[in-house]
Amino acid sequence: MRKSDKKRSSSLLGAPVRVPLKWLAATVALAVVATTGPATADGPDHGPVADTAQQAEPGYGVEPGDGQGHEPGVEPTPERAPTSEVSWLSFPGGVFAVDSLGHTVRYRACDGDTGRVADPGMRVAAGVASGAVVVGGTAYRYRVPLVGRAEGTLEVIQRHRSPTTLTGVVVTSPQPPTDPIAGARLFPLSGQLARVVADASLNPAGVTVRDLSGRYGDQQIAVNGSLRPKAASVIKLWILVELLRRVDCGQVALDDGVLVTPEDVVGGTGQLQFETFPQVVTLHRLAQYLIKYSDNVAANVLITYLGGFAPVNALIDSMNQRSTILARRMLDSAAAQRGEENYTSPDDVVSLLGAVWDGEILTPASRDLMIGFMREQTLNTKIPAALPPGVPVAHKTGDLPDASHDVGYYLIPGTETAVAFLTAGPMATGDETVRRMARTVYDFLVTPSSGAVEE
Fold it and tell me: What's this model's pTM, rounded to 2 decimal places?
């Protein structure tokens, strides 16, 4: 599915078009009514080497402060650097994340994870972050551009071993377009989506769209792309990616079995809850059911199997996805009442989907498996229901009483696109808002004259 002739570019042009709701406030009054309370279902450059391994200041995956001054049902986005200040280097078997504003880095690969590490000697010049840190006797010397699609390098130096030099593509959120002129043809879609968002008086909504086909120069646009509602079952995508990353590393195999006990059974969406336990279930079936049926039992079993929330949040942090966090299991009402909740944003979802599609976080085989599971999705009342029958999509829903989402890929040949439609507020009206956004994107993509640039 990845375009074999896709070109890498270090262009600074073509930042995503964002249309905040406040731009429309002069003409549209938005009444925000959202269901509150806990959810009860997940368904219906080199300076001196810094010899330090201490963790940086909180802020990666840490919940925000007092939560005042934001729309009901939507968490404020945590403090974060502009997208031009954070990037991560994708190389076979791992990533190296850089925050040039916070002067922190993180190496996470098959052979280990440094955690988020401070590098006070980091140099930032001409759009490149460079430096070195030593963690556990291993030195990491890096040169990482802060522009996506550029090439970065990382040298791993261990005692009594020859240095290893890793090179790879730099990923930012968003990735810059490969062709800004073609990308401009996607801009009118943002206006159309802004109207849909403005009309959703009961549901704060956000949408991010990224061209994957090259037809629109791999441009990304967003309307309220930083909206941060409860993630609902969309968080299961990160659980799956962390599992498949371990498969790619050779640490686990999908035919390995996991003992599932009666104590693991929860309700909501899914099929495993109707089976007899204890029984051994393969990782493959858990992974498939996690997406195909949005299975809550599979989600909770996989969270435990992976080692809890920390590994999934480490994955999220390594990709600099600051709005996303896994903080509770599925159907854990007690955790929800304590304020422990899962969150994400349209921008973070598309950041993940784009990295998967481009083979930047998973191998091609695991990427194809994941997208295949998403094509098998059985909960089809949103994106698929909004499109004509037979339109190929691969997607993942998310539902709570106060959230309705659908995210994934439009797989129309020659017009492949990643989308994330997220809403807060009442689920029923959120469903309709998602369908309207989904159809708006589809109509734009299939209209021959769409995206024409005015002279």
Answer: 0.85
